Structures are given as structure tokens and as C-alpha cells.
Hints:
The complex is a heterodimer. Chain A folds into 2 domains: 4-228, 3-Layer(aba) Sandwich (Rossmann fold); 233-369, CATH 2.40.50.100. In chain A, 23% of the residues lie in helices and 34% in strands. Chain A has helices spanning 42-50, 92-102, 107-120, 136-148, 166-183, 194-200, 218-223, 228-233, 331-334, and strands at residues 4-13, 16-26, 31-35, 57-62, 65-66, 77-80, 154-158, 186-191, 203-208, 211-216, 240-248, 256-260, 263-267, 278-283, 288-290, 299-309, 313-320, 323-330, 342-347, 353-356, 367-369. The longest helix of chain A has 18 residues, at 166-183. Chain B is of the alpha+beta class. In chain B, the strands form 6 sheets. In chain B, strands 1, 2, 3, 4, 7, 16 and 17 form a 7-stranded mixed beta sheet that branches. In chain B, strands 9-12-8-13 form a 4-stranded mixed beta sheet. Chain B has a two-stranded antiparallel ribbon with strand order 5-6. The chains are: A alpha+beta, B alpha+beta. Chains A and B meet through strand 6 and helix 2 of A and helix 26 and helix 27 of B.
Amino acid sequence: xxxxxxxxxxxxxxxxxxxxxxxxxxxxxxxxxxxxxxxxxxxxxxxxxxxxxxxxxxxxxxxxxxxxxxxxxxxxxxxxxxxxxxxxxxxxxxxxxxxxxxxxxxxxxxxxxxxxxxxxxxxxxxxxxxxxxxxxxxxxxxxxxxxxxxxxxxxxxxxxxxxxxxxxxxxxxxxxxxxxxxxxxxxxxxxxxxxxxxxxxxxxxxxxxxxxxxxxxxxxxxxxxxxxxxxxxxxxxxxxxxxxxxxxxxxxxxxxxxxxxxxxxxxxxxxxxxxxxxxxxxxxxxxxxxxxxxxxxxxxxxxxxxxxxxxxxxxxxxxxxxxxxxxxxxxxxxxxxxxxxxxxxxxxxxxxxxxxxxxxxxxxxxxxxxxxxxxxxxxx
Amino acid sequence: xxxxxxxxxxxxxxxxxxxxxxxxxxxxxxxxxxxxxxxxxxxxxxxxxxxxxxxxxxxxxxxxxxxxxxxxxxxxxxxxxxxxxxxxxxxxxxxxxxxxxxxxxxxxxxxxxxxxxxxxxxxxxxxxxxxxxxxxxxxxxxxxxxxxxxxxxxxxxxxxxxxxxxxxxxxxxxxxxxxxxxxxxxxxxxxxxxxxxxxxxxxxxxxxxxxxxxxxxxxxxxxxxxxxxxxxxxxxxxxxxxxxxxxxxxxxxxxxxxxxxxxxxxxxxxxxxxxxxxxxxxxxxxxxxxxxxxxxxxxxxxxxxxxxxxxxxxxxxxxxxxxxxxxxxxxxxxxxxxxxxxxxxxxxxxxxxxxxxxxxxxxxxxxxxxxxxxxxxxxxxxxxxxxxxxxxxxxxxxxxxxxxxxxxxxxxxxxxxxxxxxxxxxxxxxxxxxxxxxxxxxxxxxxxxxxxxxxxxxxxxxxxxxxxxxxxxxxxxxxxxxxxxxxxxxxxxxxxxxxxxxxxxxxxxxxxxxxxxxxxxxxxxxxxxxxxxxxxxxxxxxxxxxxxxxxxxxxxxxxxxxxxxxxxxxxxxxxxxxxxxxxxxxxxxxxxxxxxxxxxxxxxxxxxxxxxxxxxxxxxxxxxxxxxxxxxxxxxxxxxxxxxxxxxxxxxxxxxxxxxxxxxxxxxxxxxxxxxxxxxxxxxxxxxxxxxxxxxxxxxxxxxxxxxxxxxxxxxxxxxxxxxxxxx
Lengths: 380, 728
């Protein structure tokens, strides 16, 4: 077991910067999830830790040892690949024993460890099969077994669940969480699936275009997004954004309002805003409720763009001015809502997040001020 | 009524066609055409029609077409085949006044008392000399050799005498000059050797090469080479080059040489010198080209008339003038324009000494042993031993054919085998049983084509393996005699080159060595091409596939040139590096190595391409996983790459081994079996039996059948192995 420290990690490939200086620490026994959209560099970061790619700059420390100049085998890490990368010509047993055999461990020791790991993962009956005789879930477990059997300091997971169907993914996710608690090892886990990230992570690191957007416990990222990108990335459906202008009534300590095309909302608390400031208003779906009547200042009026019924719940896209917000509602209460129909939503303004609005923001404009903690106790 | 009468009249009046086949080209063809025009103009009963046939195809076409009535009335060919065609009844007698022709030329077409052709022209060898370097030709070999010190300097690529010293046709002149012969008198026969007595190598007596004269002649040429007077392993192109560029003042060559020399070269021609040791002239072979009358001619009368016209003195003169042909007619040489042509006159003088080539089919047996004795002597073996070996080989080649057999026993055996085969085939559960007619109809065209193009030739050649091809063209049924002879190694020791087992061992060694190197090199290069750090990958990929794209006989000829003892690039490099030059085709190991090197060059791209394909199917993540598991580059190859390549490579290896097993072109063109037939493989051995040893088609077919059985068994075994692997 060991902690991992990444200092100023940079990676360039053919003149393109893939990673632009990542600083990140993973505590001993912690499960860190690297998350981000495709091409954000999260897999590259993982491969750099594994030693499968060479650094362009920065340092990697594992367990107090600087490893970035060491070959992969000496870093004492194990990796579970997206495709599992099982050796097709070897049996499950041989697959799991391969690394140990190369280390020239005694036969007895190898057998003991393989049996032990197989028991842990319920692979005992499959040891003499070849990978192609296994189901997807079984292969996935073998891939994890091959990592576990080596007892590495750090486990690296590269989207290990993405090749499984939805039902199996849910189950394996739970097993993985359990396994992490059992083994208590340091793990770095790459995924683009925020549900996996939210549910598994002790801490989460969100990357975008080679830069670290925010790192912290999942809830912290959800509730206190440091910028518009983090806000928009987490949550399903994601946070909606409305372009608005701040209006401050009177001088000092007055009430703030956000005005945009077709709406005017009251802002809670004391935002350090001056009159006329251009802002993005971030609205989470759960902060919108169907309400024919609501006080002015908490009301959004618009026309329905689309309705998606998912069963009990439904998502409603509402066009407000030139923006769109997504609301979550009980499907039964919607009735026969058709696109084009007018609709009013009540905004729980305590949940609103405000971000800078400027031309050069590029989607990651910083948050201006966070609402008070505890205001969103109902989330989770 | 009147119309048909008119047609009849027309048929009577219109000249009737007389077909003549020839292989002449350029001036000789023009001369013949203008003679045909003259003949057609001179009378109106017959019309002589010429058809040009490629020289290489002529003999086979004549043998095949005439008995079936598709042949010509007249054809032009050398006299050597008289003994083969006469017994088959292909030739009809013609009237020739021998006195009108140079001595020996008309007689060359006499076979068992009948004149079976009329001479047109002759070919023999003479001594060419470069007038800028020497004033005249030496009269004796001593005179010739005395000039050696002045002209020969092998290190500078200069020689005294350029000729194809390794070719038995050229060597025969020395052989006869030293008193050697090809035929020994029969036991109990008396009198001198026929070839000496009558000035020709007659068909009587048995073939024998090991004579004191032959020994002396071999020692002589070995010395010529050892002194650096003649170039080693000379080809006709090299001879032309050396003589044209003044790098050799003398050359021995035939009349065709004239056309290959630059127009401005000042040279003379003289008969070959007298062998000082014996006081006899060196006597080259005389080959006479003549007109034959087909025994199945449709217009025999017209053909005789045309023949008489074409061999007349007037026609000969035209051929001599237009084509500078060495015509057989004495009178032509008295014509003023021919009389002052020194080349024609010199060859005429040379012809007087030349020995007409024996026309019996047995003569074809002489070349291979003669050649191998000559080559052995040139690479330094004792002439005595070389000749003894040649005679052993001659006896093996002349081994009596297997006894004729009653077909019934063999037929019964074949039927039994076929029946058993069918029985077992039926017992296997048929997948297509009750298959729809439509399906069979779709397959039918392909099936018919396969039957016609594959199955019938196979059956034909299998059938041929049960026959002995007689010298007169007939076939005797010999049952399994050919197979028995091959497998019992009848006529030669098991551990000597012509033996089946020796050749089989060489073939297996050949196949194994090639495959190991093909796969090794192919996989290594594929791994290199696959390496992520490689730049210009596309370029290398194309370059490395080039050897595969070049026709393999071209590659073989190029490599053959590179392995040349004196002029080859490989010896050139060795010399640069300070190593002695290697005589590649003089030893089994180097000769075999040369073959293998050539074939590896040809064969590795296939394995490389297969490997590249297979490599691209191995996911990078497997290598990553192995890397993390702590595997070194070699361990990754050994435990991950190689096991995953194997399934893709195995079919390629099976295919490649079958190709290599039968890779005739390389063996034939690079080493040609040298030294002494040791590097021959089964397929080239089979070829020799069919085309270089008295046309023993049956024996060759039996070889082919054995090769077929070996390869069929091998691929069935390999298929089973594959299937087992796949199911595992």
C-alpha cells in the first residue's frame, strides 16, 4: 500500500499537449477516480503512472519513491485494461500466474496466491478455461484477479466496466467497491461514466483537455463546482445554463437579481456582484419544480421543447428566452404535455450557481460565489 | 453444273500449298522467304508457304504434329534428331547428290542406309582472333599458350582465350584433338574407333568417356584455367564482352558469334589449332541444318520439288550472300563474293576437320556426364576420377528399362486401391447428401474446369508413370517397374547424387533450411516494421516486398551472376574485405548455400507479409499487460507475440514448404545441380529424366507421382495438426 503523488505532469505527443501540468495526490488506500470527457487525457495520465508512456515533464512518486524513470515492472503497479487484455492462448490460471512466473516465485507460492485470488473473485471453477470460453463478466473478474494476485502497491483501472452491459456493470460496480474496501489498496480508476465516478470514488479528479478542473470528494465537486465545466459535467441530466445579467437593487446589501431574456430571478444570499455583471446562471434539474403558481422572482416561464419519459420520472426541456433548462418531474404529473405548450417552473433559487460570463471563458468560466453549505442537504 | 465445273477447273489450276516450318530469324528468314517467292514464281503447280516456329518448340511440335497429320510437308532442323525421328517413321527419304555438298554434310542425314534429309547449312566452332592484338591465328596449342604471358592477367580481367570452357559442346573439340572419343568399340569388335576412322561419332559402340585422350584434354583445360588463360564459369555473354572489348585476343565460337560482335571490330577467323601434344587438330562438333520431308506430307511431290529448289547451288549462293549462312553446297564457296569472305572460308575449312554430331538418341545421354566430368576437372578434381565418375553416371543413365509387364496385375491393384478409397469415402458422413440440384449446377462449371485443367493432367501423368518411353517414341507398359527402380535406387549407389534417397535428403534439407530462414527473417523484419519508432515504414514495406514481386527466374539469374567466381558481386565484396574469392558452385555446401540464399531472398517477403498481418491483430494492450507483468522484450515475444503469431503462420509455413519442396526455378537456374548433381532436388531430378536424359517420360512421371504422394501425405498430416490445434 502506498500513496501516489503526481507533480506537474506534462505529456506532449507530436507537438500536441495531451496533459498540461497535473498536480494530484492519492492517499494511501484511497480510490481516486479520474473522470472527464473523451480525449481529456485521463487514460494517458493512467498510462504514465503505469510507465507505459514516457513523461514530457513532471514527477511521479509512489510510496515515497520517485518512479518516473523506472520501467513499468519496477513501479509495483498493476493495471486492469478496458479490453481486459487477457492472454488468449493461456488458461485463466496461466493468465493470473504469468506475472508471478516471470518473477520466478516458487511454484507453491504461485499456486497458493492464484487459488486465494480465484476464491476471492469466485473464479475457482474457471481456472482451466481459456478466456474465449468465458463470459464478459468472468473475463473482467479474471483481469482483476490477474492484478490482485500480484499484490501491487497501486491498482490502475482503465475503464474496466465499459465493455459490460448495463445490468452487469451495475453489479460489478458494487463488487468493485466491496473489493476496494476488502483490499484497502490505493487505486486509480479511469472512467468517463460519472455514475461510476460518483459511486466508487473516495475522491474524484475531473480533467478537461489535459487540465485538472477540480479534485475532491464527489459531493464537493457536485455541490461546489469550481467552474462552469465541472458544473455541467456532473449530474444527469446535467446542470443547465442561462445567460443573465446581475441587477443589484439599491446601494449596498440590496437584493440581487439575475435578469435574462424572458426571466428575472432573485438571487439568494450575498453575492459579490455589481450591477450589470454578465453571468451564467447554473440550474440543476432537481431545483426546478412544476408549479403553475409561484412568487415572481422564482418563476421561469417558457415553452416545452421536448419531454423524455423514463418511467416514474420524466425530463422536460423548457425553452426560456434563447436558453434551455432541463427539469426533472414525476411523469404522472405531466399529463399530456406536448412540445410547444407553455409551462411554468418554480426555481429553488438556493440551488442556483453563478459563473462568470465572458468571451474567453471557453466553457470553464470560474464560479463566482458558492451558496452556503448545507443548503442542499436533500441531494445525495 | 457449270459452277461446280468451274470450281473443279480452278482447283486443278490453282497452285497447291506446300507447308514449310522453320525457326529462322532476321536475314536467314528473309533469304528463305525470297527463295520461296522465287520458287512460287518459277512454276504454277505448287505454292510454298513458310511458317516460323520458335526454335525451342520446333522439335516437340514436329514429334507431335506429324504423326497426327497436322504437320508440315517440309521442315528445317538440325541433323541430330534423325536417329530419333527415323525409327518413329516421321521422315521420308529424299534424293540428294552428296558430291555437291561439303564432306559429311549430306551424310549426316543418312540413317540406316536411307537419306532422310538434305543439308542446307552447317554450324561448327572456329578460332576468332582480334587483328588489333595479334597478326594471325596460332597454328598449334603451344603457339597459342606461348602468347599467354603477354595477354593473360585475370586480376585485370584479361585473358588469352575466351570460350565457354565449362560447356561440353566446346570442350569436345579438345577431347577429339587429344584423341579422346565418345564411343568405344563393342566387345569383340575390331578395327579402329568409328569416330576416328570415319571422322564422325557413329552410333555403333557403347558410350564411354573415360579414355586417355579425354583425360589429357581435361588436364589441358584445367591447366588453361589454372594459369588464368581462360575466364572461369564463362557465359556466352562474357565471351562476347571479353572479345569485343579486346580483353581476350582469341575466342572459340560458332558462326552466330559474327552477329554478336561490333561491326567495327577488326577480327579474323581460323580453324582451331592443332593440339601440340598429339599433333592432331582440335576437332569441334559439326551440326548440319537440313530440310526434312515429312512421311505424312500432303504434297510429297511438290515438297520434293521445293526441297530440290531450296538446296540447289543457286539457292545456297543466295543464302550465303543474303544471310551470310554457312551453306553446305561446295559450289557456293567458289562464287567470287563468297570466296573473298574470310569468315565463310575459314568456317568452311573448319568444317572439314569437324566431327558430325552423332544423330542417335543415345547422344543425348552424353551431355550430363560429360559436363559434370568437365566441371569437376575445372574445379581441380583429378581428370581420371572425374571421368570414371562420368562413366558410372553414363552406365546408370543407360540402365536397361524395367521389363515389360502384363497390365492385368497392376490394373487389378489400382482398381483395388480405387475401390478401397471409394469405400472409405462413402462411409464418411456426407454433408452434401441429398443436396439440391441447383447447388450442384452452380458448382458444375468450376468442377468441369478443375477436371479438365487439374484432374486430367494429374491422371495422365500418373498413368504415364506406368510406362517406359522407348527411344523410338513408343511406350511399353512396365507396371510398377519405374517406381521399383526409383525406390530401389537401381543402377546407382544410394549415397550418390542421382539416387532417389540422396536427392530426397537434399530436398528435405533444402526445404527445412529455407523455411527456418524464411520464417526467421520474415518474422524479424515484420517485428522491425511493426516497431512504433520506425520512420518511413511505408517505404521499407514496399522495398521489402519487391523481391516477391520480381519474377523468380529473373532473381535467380541475377543471383547466379552475383555468385560468379570471377565477376560476381559477392566475391567482389569478399575480395574487398580481404577474403579469398569462393568458387561457389564447386562445393556442395557453398553451392547449396547459394541456392538457399537466393530462395530466402525470394521467400521471406511472403512470411513477412503474413506476419505483419498477424501482428496487427494482436492488441497493443496485450503487450502493455505483459510489460506490467514484468516481461522483458524477449519474454513478451516468447510468451505473447510468438504464441499468437503461430496460428496465422502455420498455414503459411505449410504452403511455403510445398512451394519450396518444388522450387525448380531456383535450383535449376542458380546451381543447376552443381557440383555433380548434388544440389538437385526431386523436381529438378525429375525434369532431367524427362528432358535431359533420353526423354524417359515414364521414369520422370514416376518421380512426379512420388513427389505428389509425399506432399499430399504431408499436407494431410499438416491439416490434421491444424485442425487439432484449432479445436484445442
